[in-house]
Every structure is written in structure tokens, then in C-alpha cells.
Design goal:
single chain, two-stranded antiparallel sheet, 8 helices
Length: 270
């Protein structure tokens, strides 16, 4: 009502039934000296803000009413956790709430309905297995036992992996199998088998052998290059020694065949 436009008309001020539309016109009677006398808007106070506050109250109480926190439903709360510890505490409390929900189902639905079925079946005189039985729902007990067992397995696995002495005595693989089974996961599909480990070990050995062969080949090539460089250096030195020896011999020969210089001013004897 507050969001829509409400108009009030006085029919005697109109020549015909008015047609209200954006940008349209209406014909009024001659005795209507002011259009506001013919048409008036009815204003209803908006109370939507109050409804928004009520909705927020229900959102805040949703955790208590449903016993399932928003964080476990995939909804990020307004005051979300800032640290990993706070987030872990929220998730732990969410698990407690879920346990309470399961217990309420056991006590409020499963046990009463199952007990009614049991009493009805016991009325049959030919029903097999008749006796004084009491139906007990174990959904919450089994859920709690599975959670506690999973936590203990995780603690033991962390303790074993932390100390090498315990790791040498314990078997981590059966612990992993039990942890995966406790959360309804198939360890045979998600964990590596012995054949997978053998294949991976073989691939690692082949890769390591190939890497060693490449390293040996690179070392051999480096040694061959070093030997070639030494041979080239030796040949260059031999060439230099030969050139030096040839130069010394040439100087010796030229020194013996050159004429002896005579003093200035004296006749040269032929």
C-alpha cells in the first residue's frame, strides 16, 4: 500500500469516468475550479523499515531455531571469524548443533513412530518373534561414536607422524583406511595401492637413471672439450717454440755472414 499510488475521485467533478495513465488528460466539469478538489492522493505511511528489523531478528535467531549454524549452511555470517582458530571453533560448535538435531530426530520422530509400529505388529497373534521389546534409536549414538573415533584416529596419526620412534613401530596406512571409512569414503579408490606405488617407484628410478646418464654424457663432453683445448694449447705452444727457434737460427746465420765494420778515416783493404 505504501509503495503504490492511491487516488481518490469525486465523480461529480468529471464529465466521464477518468482514465488514469502516465501523460494522459482528464476532463473535469465546469463547476470544478481546482483539480485538487476532483482528484486527491492518499498517502499511507511506509512501515517497511519495521518489517526489515523483524526479518533481521529472525536471521539472528535462525541458528538457535534450526540448531544448524549459518557457517555450516554455506552462509558467511555478518561477524565472521577472522582467524583459523575462531573458524575451527565455529565448525566444532556446528558439529555439536548437528548432533543435537540428530538426537531430536531420534527422540521425537524415530522412537515414537517405531514404537507405534512395534506395538501394532505385536497385536498380531501370528507375528513371529513376539516379545517385550523396547525400540531405541541409535542414530545420535552412532554419529557421536563415529565422530569421536575419527578424532582419536586423527590424534594418533598426528602423534605417530610427529615422532620417528613411533613411526618405526606403527602402521600409518591402516589408520588412513579407517579415517577414510569413518567419513564414508572408499580408501581403495582415494589411496594408492601397492601396484601404484611400484609403478611410481619404477618411473622415479627410470627418470633418475635418465638424469644420471645425461649428467655423465655432459661430463664426458666437458672432458672431451677440455682435452681438445689442452691439445690446441699444446700445438700453439709448439708453434711458438718453433717460431722462436727459427728466429734465433736466422739471427745466428746473419751475424756470421755480415762484414766487420771498419773505423772511420782508414782505407779499406780489399
Amino acid at each position: 500500500l505504501a509503495g503504490d499510488v492511491l487516488l481518490a475521485f469525486k465523480e461529480r467533478f468529471f464529465e466521464a469516468n477518468p482514465e488514469i495513465k502516465p501523460g494522459g488528460t482528464m476532463k473535469v466539469a465546469e463547476e470544478c475550479d481546482d483539480a485538487r478538489k476532483a482528484v486527491q492522493q492518499i498517502i499511507i505511511q511506509d512501515v517497511g523499515a519495521g518489517y526489515v528489523d523483524v526479518i533481521r531478528i529472525f536471521e539472528r535467531m535462525a541458528d538457535v531455531v534450526s540448531m544448524i549454524p549459518q557457517i555450516s549452511q554455506g552462509v558467511r555470517p555478518e561477524k565472521s571469524a577472522d582467524t583459523a582458530y575462531e573458524l575451527s571453533q565455529l565448525l566444532e560448535n556446528a558439529g555439536k548443533y548437528l548432533g543435537s538435531v540428530i538426537r531430536n530426530y531420534d527422540q521425537g520422530l524415530v522412537e515414537p513412530i517405531g514404537s507405534d509400529f512395534l506395538r501394532y505388529n505385536m497385536l498380531d497373534p501370528e507375528a513371529p518373534g513376539k516379545g517385550d521389546f523396547v525400540l531405541k534409536a541409535l542414530g545420535f549414538s552412532s554419529f557421536q561414536a563415529r565422530i569421536v573415533r575419527t578424532q582419536k584416529l586423527l590424534q594418533m596419526l598426528g602423534l605417530v607422524m610427529q615422532y620417528p620412534e613411533l613411526l618405526a613401530e606403527a602402521k600409518p596406512r591402516p589408520m588412513l583406511d579407517e579415517i577414510f571409512k569413518s567419513v564414508d569414503l572408499d580408501p581403495g579408490v582415494l589411496l594408492k595401492s601397492e601396484q601404484d606405488k611400484e609403478v611410481e617407484a619404477k618411473e622415479k628410478q627410470e627418470a633418475l637413471a635418465q638424469q644420471l646418464a645425461m649428467q655423465q654424457q655432459a661430463q664426458s663432453e666437458a672432458l672431451a672439450m677440455a682435452e681438445g683445448a689442452k691439445d690446441a694449447e699444446h700445438g700453439r705452444r709448439m708453434e711458438l717454440e718453433g717460431a722462436k727457434a727459427a728466429g734465433s737460427l736466422a739471427k745466428t746465420v746473419l751475424g756470421k755472414s755480415a762484414p766487420t765494420p771498419q773505423p772511420m778515416g782508414l782505407p779499406v783493404q780489399q
